[in-house]
Amino acid sequence: MNVLKISLGLAVATSFLVGCEQMPKSNGSAASTAAAGTPDIVYVNSDSLLANYEYFKEARTRLQGKGQQAEQDLRTQAEAFQKEVERYQQSAQGMTEQQRASTEQRLQQKQQQLQVLQQNKGNELAGEESEEMKKIYDRVEEYLKKLSDEKGYKMVLTYSRGNSAILYSDSTLDITSEVVAALNEAYSSEKDTAKTETAAPKK
Fold first, then answer.
1. Where are the stretches annotated Disordered (predicted)?
2. Alpha-carbon dihedral sign for residues 149, 152, 157, 160
3. How many separate helices (H) and strands (E) can be counted in the chain?
4. Tens digits of per-residue pLDDT, 131-167?
5. Among 65, 81, 117, 169, which is least packed, fewest CB within 10 Å?
6. By C-alpha distance, which of 153, 151, 178, 186 is closest to 44?
7. What is the share, in percent, of the chain residues with pLDDT greater than 70?
8. CA atoms of 16 and 129, how far apart (whole Å)
9. Does residue 130 contact residue 90 with C-beta atoms inside 8 Å?
10. Residue 58: pLDDT above 50?
């Protein structure tokens, strides 16, 4: 019996496109006070972002661990089922027709249960992966909106080598390092705050 291989599709995140809201040009907005020469459009290298964003790396490790554990559990159950099938095959000749029919029906039901379990586990992991990617997208989008408001950017594009509509761009428009540094700093602060709250004595 083939065991379902749980695969993580986190690489799909490299195709996300973040369009920042256009900043107003009046009423003293950040866009109107941006330094002369600030570009309207900049980009983020999604490959570099995901390779260096600590939240993403931890989420990927966590999901991979769950996927490997699920695969191991399913493999163990599948191997136990296979041994049960082999035992039946070896003893089938000594069984009555009614015993064979009953055993085959039980084995068939067990096989179906394993298939349902595999499908459910795969759906569960896919759901967790989707939720994590939504959190990552929201974090990046929130920061880029804030950054665009400060810098006066009209749009932030994403670039991924071999999977992008952007064939060439001036490297001065690349804000990846700035984005990664800010996201990691914010995530580090979140973890520090969480540790402090956890360690604080309850009143």
1. 89-111
2. negative
3. 4, 2
4. 999 999 999 999 999 999 999 999 999 888 877 777 7
5. 65
6. 178
7. 80
8. 15
9. no
10. yes
Count the alpha carbons within 13 Å of 154 in the hemisphere toward its beta carbon: 7
Q: Residue 61, exposed/middle/buried by CB under 10 A (0-12, 13-18, 19+)?
A: exposed
Tell me whether residue 162 is exposed, middle or buried, using C-beta atoms within 10 angstroms of its C-beta: 0 to 12, 13 to 18, 19 or more. exposed
Distance, in Å, from the CA atom of 19 to the CA atom of 170, rounded to the nearest integer, reads 19
Instruction: Dump pLDDT digits (tens) for 75-87.
Output: 999 999 999 999 9
pLDDT band at 170 (very low <50, low <70, confident <90, very high): confident
Quick check: helix, strand or coil at residue 166? coil
Per residue, what are the HEC states of 9-44? CHHHHHHCCCCCCCCCCCCCCCCCCCCCCCCCEEEE
Q: Collapse the DSSP code of 45 into the 3-class scheme (helix H, G, I; strand E, B; otherwise coil) and give the result.
A: strand
> pTM of the prediction?
0.69
Partners of residue 44 on adjacent β-strands? 158
Q: Give one DSSP letter per residue of 66-96, joined into a string.
A: HHHHHHHHHHHHHHHHHHHHHHHHHHGGGS-
CA neighbor of 107 nearest in space, from 137, 80, 147, 68: 80
- Supply 99's token pair: 């015993």
